[in-house]
Amino acid sequence: MAAGIECRGNSLRMWILNKGEKLNEPLDWPATPEYTERAKQWAELITLEMKMGKFELSRHFPNSKNLKENQISYYAKIYLEDIKKEVAPSTYASYEGHVKNHINPKWGRLHPEDIETKQVKKWIKQLKDTHSSKTIREIITRFSQVHAVWRDENKVAFDPFQNITIHQADTPEPDPFTKAEINRLLQTETDLDIENLLPCLFWTGLSMSEQIPIAWEDINLEKGTIQINRSYVRGVYRVTKNRRRKREIKLLQPALDALKEQYHFSGNARTQVIEVLQRDNHSYKEERLRFVWLNRERSTHFEYHELRYRWGKHLKKAKVRKRGINQGRHTFASQLLSSGQVPPEWIAEQLGHADTSMIYKHYGKLIAEDMPDYLSKINQYIQK
């Protein structure tokens, strides 16, 4: 039993003769005298460990292709490969982050059969110091799914995650803008790039991922409609989140007027060619578009972080309490509900929801100061 170093082109490789089997482990080191000496010392250490019966390949080369299927990190890799083409790129990036930033650093070198419920619960308590319940639940869900790959492959029935429950905090209530706040924001001077965008944030009901990639090819100013065909998340254009979100919305007058004004700025902009990821999360379709909300410094549409920065500056300038830019969508639902003039079903259709449950649960909050005087109306009706 021994270990040694050899050059492979411009890099180094370690060979390990263990129990009659020769293993080759590439090193991410250039074949310089300094690194060669370090590699030799490493090989000598491995040789010594072999003589003492303490050598473990996984400790020296955790990502080795020669490792047996005995580590969480191995099954995490399989899990990520399996789901890569099954979920949206933004979702995959989130899952990959859970694995690389949390699961592998803590559990990557352990054998799946060594994972105990007690250990996981202890880890959850530690995570609570730095992460929200929602994030923790997502991390543990990924961990459970990684572990399930091993259980399925080895026909193991015991699931250490079965009796783990993570209680989430109540969903934060929507924090919509009042009419007075909306008027103050619209009347406060702002950058020309977003002047016409502001009314559309409040009066279209679009999420920011839908608002950013809107193109003139989607808009019919005569009919007063927008066809919602795509979204833009983390640098990727893709079809709408679900089929229900692919819809035609009817424009309220403030939004329609703003778009007519915006046409003078970007209606004749150059066409840009983009690739839109389709619902299978694999194929792409080419589209040629003239984007509506152009950052004129870059001659293409805004990125989310750019709008969020401008939005924060504008709130401060208008002396309106700070809230996220996505509250525009909440405001749309809440203002229409508060008006008493619009059935919830119409609002749900505009937002792209199948029914009204999401309206009340996530977006709708009656704004007391903007509600009609229903009591007077009822009294007048009774006295007739």
UniProtKB/TrEMBL annotation:
Signal peptide residues on this chain, from the entry's feature table: none
Gene Ontology MF term list: DNA binding
Residues covered by the Core-binding (CB) domain: 70-151
Domain Tyr recombinase stretches: 172-376
Record keywords: DNA integration, DNA recombination, DNA-binding
GO biological process, one term: DNA integration
Keyword Cell cycle set for record: no
Keyword DNA-binding annotated: yes
PANTHER family in the cross-refs: PHAGE INTEGRASE-RELATED (PTHR30349), PROPHAGE INTEGRASE INTR-RELATED (PTHR30349:SF36)
Official protein name in the record: Tyrosine recombinase XerD
Organism: Acinetobacter venetianus
Biological classification of the source: Bacteria, Pseudomonadati, Pseudomonadota, Gammaproteobacteria, Moraxellales
Encoding gene (name): xerD_2
